[in-house]
Amino acid sequence: MNSYIKNKTLIYFLIYLTFIISFIFGENSSGGSQKDSLYMNFFQSQITSNIKEGIIFFLEGGTTHTPTFYIIKSIIINSLNKVSSDIIFLSIGFLIPFVFYTILKKQFRGCNKKLLFGISIVLYLSPYLRSSAVWATNDNLAILFFVLSISKFITFTKSQNNNLKDIFLCSLYIIIAIYIRQYYLLIILLYTFLLFKKISIKNFFYLTIVSFILLIPGIFYTYNFFIINYDVTFKWGEGFVSPNVLFNLFVFFTMYLFYIFPFFFQIKNYKKIKDFYNNKKFYFLIMIVIFSLLFFYYDFSAKDNLGGGAFYKIYQLTDSKLFFVFSAFLGMLLILLTINLNLKNLIILCFFLFMFPFAIVYQKYYDPIMIIIFFSFIESNLIHDNIKFEKINMIFVYIYFLSFLVGTNIYYLNI
């Protein structure tokens, strides 16, 4: 056990060194973190100079970012200095896989902790987590509070005592995440759905009231933002927040394939595809017909040719519509094969699909939260068995995600 702890500590230390190196060289493997950071620097300077006037500047400036993260950042900068602030936010990104490891231990009790640790550190290969850490953007702080809320949620649902402190902390953490990145608002509705039958009506009512009170400043800020920026937000709503639902659904399928497939890369799992085909030939045929019709008659052009994720980028580079549609088909098939087909799982997937109701869906929205969501919320007998019987090919998983990280670095260095 002591040897295991020492090895873990050494691994964490070596990984943190890679974060320091990335910080020194300004890694921008996400492609957008540096740009976002530079764009928000002017807003940040207003907050740093005067918080009250800075908030007004945020309102009048029309940025969709809330000032919460930048207030926190300004307090750290004013208390310490800019470099210390950057190191703190670099470390916050480093903490996310650590919290994810605690989630995995709660979710898969009795399973090999070395394997769970191995799964958790895959997040360190996320280009988006690393770039956000290097450029101190708001994404990682929001994700950190998101995973903290999940950790408390699982503690509550797995415990026989159902300590209300856990669920109130869960609510507090997700509300903080919402103040940093607004799209986490849907997670409150998801928690409401998952908890409705697990707590008494009285406690549910108290939890709702407390959550609403905590959200009042955010509601007030959002109301004033829309009043001040009515013309801008109306045009923004017609453009950016006007999703092409079918296209976004296909992007979601390809994202699922991209992030979840590596954990099922085993020859034995392909037998399940054969069994699925033999047992569900009629449904399989319907899926093929639907995807074929969409291939021939639907235009999958993204707004302004932006976003869409890795598979869509390959489609754009190769001009192969078939590749994108087939990838989406495989993603849908993978969902049917890997999750327990019940109402709870379908609702969870729908919540995460509609978390990003945008005309342009970027890969960063799902990286690394697709992995976090799958291992934290989705009921899957297959993944439980793969972890219990140690069937996950972690060497392939590491090579796969490391290749993605290296590839994104090379891609964005050359454009």
Q: Would you list the SSEs in sequence order as H and E? A: HHHHHHHHHHHHHHHHHHHHH
In which range does the helix fraction lie? over 70%
Number of helices: 21
Biggest beta sheet summary: none
Q: In total, how many beta strands?
A: 0
**What coarse outline follows from CA principal-axis ratios?**
globular
> Could you say which structural class the secondary elements and strand pairing correspond to?
mainly alpha
What would you say this structure looks like, in words?
The protein has 415 residues and is mostly helical. It is 76% helix and 0% strand. The chain contains 21 helices and no strands. The longest helix has 28 residues. The radius of gyration is 22 Å and the shape is globular. The mean pLDDT is 86.
Helix/strand layout:
Elements: H1 2-25, H2 33-49, H3 51-61, H4 68-79, H5 82-107, H6 113-120, H7 127-135, H8 139-158, H9 164-180, H10 185-195, H11 201-228, H12 230-239, H13 245-260, H14 267-279, H15 281-297, H16 309-318, H17 321-338, H18 343-353, H19 369-377, H20 381-388, H21 394-413
Keywords:
415 residues, mainly alpha, 21 helices
Outline of this structure?
The protein is mostly helical and 415 residues long. Helix content is 76%, strand content 0%.
